[in-house]
Amino acid sequence: MKKVLMIASSLLVVVSLAACKKEAEAPKPTESAAANTGSMSEMAMAAEMKHGKGVGTVTEIDAAKGMVTLDHGDIAELQWPAMKMGFTIKPDLLAGIKVGDKVNFEIDWDGKAGTVTRIEKAEK
Ligand SMILES: [Cu+2]
Questions:
Q1: Beta carbons of 77 and 52 less than 8 angstroms apart
Q2: pTM
Q3: Burial of 99 (0-12, 13-18, 19+ CB in 10 A)
Q4: What per-residue confidence (pLDDT) applies to 26?
Q5: How far apart are CA 62 and CA 68, in angstroms?
Q6: Please, which of 9, 28, 56, 64 could form a disulfide with 72 given CB 3.0 to 4.6 Å?
């Protein structure tokens, strides 16, 4: 929406100053540079949240803190090797899950911390 408005307003500037070409061209680089910076940072932020799927074993549950520790296998989407690590989780997702369970899970990873968005016992 913003970008469309920027383009529309820079077109207006060009049209209104069309009589004098030198003045019409001068403000253009500044405006498009500002527009690019805005959309680039939005793209970078969107790219930081990644989603991955994995299989693991529950090694620790702290429902009060909304934490679960999983000894998980590779997660291809995140290029992660197998490891043991803690994730935040909504406590209600932990219903029926206990330490020692083998689980299938999905996570959101923001580059620093992971949140389990789905977890269920794996079929044996
Ligand atoms: Cu991990």
A1: yes
A2: 0.62
A3: exposed
A4: 47
A5: 6
A6: 56
CB-hemisphere CA count at 13 Å for 36? 6
**80-124 per-position pLDDT tens digit:** 999 999 999 999 999 999 999 999 999 999 999 999 999 999 976
Tokens linked to 118: 């789905």
- pLDDT, one tens digit per residue, over 39-85 is 555 555 555 799 999 999 999 999 999 999 999 999 999 999 999 99
Q: For residue 113, how far is its CA from the centre of ligand 1 (angstroms)?
A: 10
Q: How far is the CA of 104 from the centre of ligand 1 (A)?
A: 14
Tell how far the Cα of 84 is from the centroid of ligand 1, in angstroms: 6
Position of tokens 């500044």? Answer: 30
Which two three-digit tokens encode residue 40? 């680039």
Please tell me the distance between residue 51's alpha carbon and the centre of ligand 1 in angstroms.
13
61: which residues sit within 8 A by CB, 6+ positions away?
67, 68, 69, 94, 97, 98, 99
